[in-house]
Design goal:
The chain has strands spanning about 1-5, 10-15, 35-40, 50-55, 60-65, 70-85, 85-95, 100, 110, 115-120, 120-125, 130-140, 145-155, 165, 170. The chain is mainly β.
Length: about 170
């Protein structure tokens, strides 16, 4: 099993008061860190001889999102590509490491159910801490397959201002 941990920092800058209207020229903080590691895993091994995962972009900033309970969408925000050599019905999965946590005060959180995704072949669903298959791939020769993901976020009313983040983990098996 190959697992790529991509630090996808979802920055939700909640600026101003709870009921503040958005100004047309406001922007969010665009700085974010990237951390990529590949780990070997135990359990059932995939049939592919080799697989690697590339996720673009590796950090995502969703800008300023107000705590108004309205869902925002980010079409085709992420592209995950698996490069493989001999794969037979292998899968690419995604999960989150937990709730969205305020970077300044870890006691402040946005429920993970507020962050959702969809792909061209999957309807919108919430991220979970369990792997969810987003693509199946097969091939005898070296090849690659990609899938785009759209993201959706709803910031609940009365959420404290701040920058919130979570890590998305992509696994090829």
């Amino acid at each position: 099993m190959r697992t790529t941990v991509i630090s996808v920092i979802l920055l939700f800058l909640i600026v101003g008061g709870i009921f503040t209207a958005a100004a047309a020229n406001e922007t969010g903080n665009n700085s974010s860190a990237v951390n990529k590691t590949v780990k070997g895993g135990g359990g059932v091994q995939p049939l592919s001889l080799s697989a690697s995962i590339e996720v673009e972009p590796s950090s995502i900033n969703l800008g300023t999102v107000y705590p108004d309970g309205i869902e925002r969408s980010y079409p085709n925000a992420v592209t995950a590509t698996v490069t493989y050599f001999f794969a037979w019905q292998d899968t690419l999965s995604v999960r989150a490491d937990g709730n969205l946590v305020n970077t300044a005060d870890s006691s402040l959180r946005i429920p993970l159910s507020s962050l959702k995704f969809s792909t061209p072949s999957l309807s919108k669903r919430s991220f979970t801490t369990s792997d969810q298959t987003i693509m199946t791939y097969t091939g005898v020769l070296p090849g690659s397959r990609s899938v785009t993901m759209s993201l959706y976020i709803t910031v609940p009313p009365y959420t404290d201002p701040g920058t919130y983040q979570t890590t998305l983990i992509y696994t090829a098996t």
